[in-house]
């Protein structure tokens, strides 16, 4: 089978399409025939060597596809449509491949209202948003600031926070205001506008603003970032956290249901064939995307 991998770190030109044996599922595992797999910033960071590692590294965290084979002790059946999140910065093979083997408890049913290309954008971004909100642990009615609210994680955070009854303010480019408000933001701040100092019970810093986002948190409030190790130092009694996203089939099943209810809105910017993974990385590097790039084996 084919897979997108890197054996040396660098730019988009470092991405290779390599041949591998089709993997076999073990106890508690399933094999998925990949129908679509989103390309995320974490894949670009892996390719560039941000997380280090030696030898060949597989790319891809998101997957939507069909169960092709099951190992012992699995309740899933072949032919079922599923989505999943394959975490880890040093995988031998990722989801940017023809097949992927994953633990069965990381899977969720694909939203019935979405095709595979749309569904492939959900696992990493929506799971990250959900786990970050749970880390913040805010109560209905409290004030949340989401930076980068027009992005993949930020938009899903706005949707989920609105659904949970939080008062949501989103930040982003002026062009994203209509979209962010439509996803559930009560207020919007265009990039460059300064949030009220100490005006929020919690901040989900999807844009990675660090200290300037922390300044918006009230004393003894909570800050959550997306890149462990890059979060600002605590001050004024603020609890500072950074999410290290974990695969969780139960949570992903919950998110799949919310997608079917229209709470979560998938956005696909472009689709590329798997063999053009390098070109897809180059397009991601160009920026200016209003959704995720998806690879189609």
From TrEMBL:
Tagged with keyword NADP: yes
Domain Enoyl reductase (ER): 10-295
Keyword NADP attached: yes
Entries under CDD domains matching the protein: MDR_like_2 (cd05289)
A Pfam short name: ADH_N
UniProt KW keywords: NADP
GO molecular function: oxidoreductase activity
InterPro entries: ADH-like_N, ER, GroES-like_sf, NAD(P)-bd_dom_sf, Zinc-ADH_QOR/CCCR
Protein known as: NADPH:quinone reductase
Annotated organism of origin: Nocardioides luteus
Lineage, opening ranks: Bacteria, Bacillati, Actinomycetota, Actinomycetes, Propionibacteriales
């Amino acid at each position: 089978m084919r897979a997108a991998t890197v054996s040396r770190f660098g730019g988009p030109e470092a991405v290779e399409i390599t041949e591998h044996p089709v993997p076999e599922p073990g106890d508690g595992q399933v094999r998925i025939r990949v129908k679509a797999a989103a390309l995320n910033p974490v894949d670009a960071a892996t390719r560039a060597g941000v997380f280090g590692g030696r030898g060949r590294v597989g790319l891809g965290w998101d997957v939507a596809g069909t169960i092709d084979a099951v190992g012992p002790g699995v309740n899933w059946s072949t032919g079922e449509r599923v989505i999943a999140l394959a975490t880890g910065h040093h995988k031998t093979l990722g989801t940017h491949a023809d097949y992927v083997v994953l633990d069965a408890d990381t899977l969720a049913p694909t939203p019935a209202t979405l095709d595979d290309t749309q569904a492939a954008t959900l696992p990493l971004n929506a799971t990250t948003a959900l786990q970050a909100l749970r880390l913040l642990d805010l109560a209905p009615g409290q004030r949340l600031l989401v930076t980068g609210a027009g992005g993949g994680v930020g938009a899903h955070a706005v949707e989920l926070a609105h659904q949970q009854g939080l008062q949501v303010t989103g930040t982003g480019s002026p062009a994203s205001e209509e979209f962010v408000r439509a996803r559930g933001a009560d207020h919007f701040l265009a990039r460059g506008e300064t949030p009220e100092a100490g005006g929020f019970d919690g901040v989900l810093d999807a844009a990675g603003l660090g200290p300037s986002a922390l300044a918006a948190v009230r004393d003894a409030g909570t800050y959550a970032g997306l890149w462990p190790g890059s979060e600002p130092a605590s001050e004024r009694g603020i609890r500072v956290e950074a999410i290290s996203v974990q695969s969780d089939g139960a949570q992903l099943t919950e998110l799949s249901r919310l997608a079917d209810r229209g709470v979560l809105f998938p956005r696909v910017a472009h689709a590329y064939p798997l063999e053009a993974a390098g070109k897809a990385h180059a397009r991601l590097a160009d920026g200016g995307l209003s959704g995720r790039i998806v690879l189609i084996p």
